[in-house]
Design brief:
By secondary structure, the protein is of the alpha+beta class. The chain is built from 13 helices and eight strands. The strands form two sheets. The protein has a five-stranded antiparallel sheet with strand order 7-6-5-4-8. A three-stranded mixed sheet has the order 1-2-3. The longest helix is centred in the last third of the chain and has 23 residues.
């Protein structure tokens, strides 16, 4: 009796191609299912006492916010400066303090990354001004992004006001230059006065005057910001910038992969199956 050792060894080898096909199909099914899994997420408010107007909150476009600002604008002799104040007021009344986020269904990859709890970072937090206009919740940096975009659209030079330069930023606000002078606007924490010349923030007691409301004293914000101002840790950065370009690109990529990433492993599985069928057909006609 003769044993065909060579063919026996070939048949005994694991079917790695078949195993890989199964893995790809299972992965595709799992990724496809993720977009229907509801693990919560989305925008959340943090309870900070904010001014909020439900009527303005119903405005969900940049054009609508601009129109409302022009309707409420009060003339003081400088149109651009008056418009900057009106836009800041509308953004402040448009949302309450919190974080505008994508839900797990919209972008499960970004929400999964947020579970790592990186300080001062939210991968699922909205960054595109058009998206922020649709929400009634905004973190300080999100309110700043929205206000900066409105300034840019209306020809007002704008920049980011960075708190705690060189360290973790406890807050973000906006600098605008509607009349040739850089002015300070905070649509998130709503100080006692908007449009103060930025250079005056270093004056002794100026920050304490702006953030003198009880809610700021309760949170210790007044003294924290005053200390940063006295140490020169509040600065203007990113003049006429277009926002977090890399962050927006990353967010769009993860959203696309969250919704359509299942197609990749499915395509690989289909190619493997086609290769197997083609190889079998070739052997049959050999």
């Amino acid at each position: 009796m003769t044993i065909d050792t060579e063919n026996y060894q070939q048949r005994a080898q694991p079917d790695w191609q078949g195993l890989l096909t199964i893995i790809m199909l299972v992965l595709a099914a799992a990724l496809y299912t993720m977009q229907f899994v509801d693990l919560g997420g989305g925008s959340t408010a943090d309870g900070v006492d904010d001014a909020y107007d439900p009527r303005i909150g119903e405005i969900h476009t940049l054009e609508g916010l601009e129109a409302e600002a022009r309707r409420q604008m009060r003339s003081t002799g400088n149109t651009q400066r008056d418009l900057a104040l009106a836009l800041t007021k509308i953004v402040a009344l448009h949302s309450i303090h919190g974080v505008a986020r994508q839900t797990w269904k919209q972008n499960w990859i970004a929400n999964a990354l947020d579970m790592m709890e990186s300080p001062y970072t939210s991968y699922a937090g909205l960054m595109v001004p058009e998206d922020l206009a649709k929400e009634n919740v905004a973190f300080c940096s999100q309110a700043s992004l929205l206000l900066q975009e409105l300034f840019r659209r209306n020809g007002i030079p704008q920049a980011t006001v960075r708190f705690n330069v060189g360290g973790p930023p406890p807050h973000s606000a906006v600098a605008g230059k509607p009349d040739g002078v850089w002015r300070f606007y905070d649509a998130s924490y709503e100080p006692a006065q908007q449009g103060v010349p930025f250079a005056r923030l270093k004056e002794p007691g100026k920050i304490l005057e702006l953030y003198s409301a009880p809610k700021f004293k309760m949170l210790g914000i007044d003294k924290q910001f005053d200390d940063l101002a006295r140490r020169g840790k509040i600065a203007i950065i990113g003049i006429d910038g277009r926002g977090p370009v890399r962050g927006i690109a990353f967010q769009r990529l993860t959203k696309t992969l969250s919704l359509h990433g299942w197609f990749g492993p499915l395509l690989i599985a289909m190619l493997l199956l086609y290769r197997r069928a083609f190889k079998a057909q070739a052997l049959r006609f050999a």
